[in-house]
Prior knowledge:
This protein is of the alpha/beta class. The chain has ten helices and seven strands.
Amino acid sequence: xxxxxxxxxxxxxxxxxxxxxxxxxxxxxxxxxxxxxxxxxxxxxxxxxxxxxxxxxxxxxxxxxxxxxxxxxxxxxxxxxxxxxxxxxxxxxxxxxxxxxxxxxxxxxxxxxxxxxxxxxxxxxxxxxxxxxxxxxxxxxxxxxxxxxxxxxxxxxxxxxxxxxxxxxxxxxxxxxxxxxxxxxxxxxxxxxxxxxxxxxxxxxxxxxxxxxxxxxxxxxxxxxxxxxxxxxxxxxxxxxxxxxxxxxxxxxxxxxxxxxxxxxxx
Length: 267
């Protein structure tokens, strides 16, 4: 993993009123052009179940954050930055939960630092080809040097479906991230992990996917899960790419069941 880790200025540690279950934090890693706000419904369900939740902002995504001028935003450097944050705060392995691009970052971390990861959950993500139309939209915006308002609305509707105006305003703030960060992380997200990375992951792996995901079709995610006995799938009927926002209760149920079944590992 890269040596170019940077400190993460935002690590929101949420503790339940009444702890229950395993004393292992769930670490939530956001996707491209997103941030901590879209984890709130799922985080609240996990807190209600007695689980501790950590929410991180990836490098450059926290409002007002400045990165070193020589920082190269890649999945590898993002994973190294998350690993450094966990080294500073965690007393043991954590349950990693990554959405979309955050799933790629989590895969990189789990492959390179297995001792940090008790389990890995990919939400709305598997290392399979993205929708080509989505990639073409991104490339057009990267070429023009900014994300226009119409494209932002188009992308948000593809990810969430129809949103109320207040939710659109809150959830689209990820596009306020400085364009150089959005651009570099978009390239990283579209490139994805190297083919060998998933095979190096030792931790139990769950994919949570909406059956209506328009970014990565459910059929491709089923194929990824079927390729290894250490992987399982929770298909959430009727949900789209941001399944954790649309159906947080079903996602929380899938996570809690997975964590109880997979940790501690068999002797």
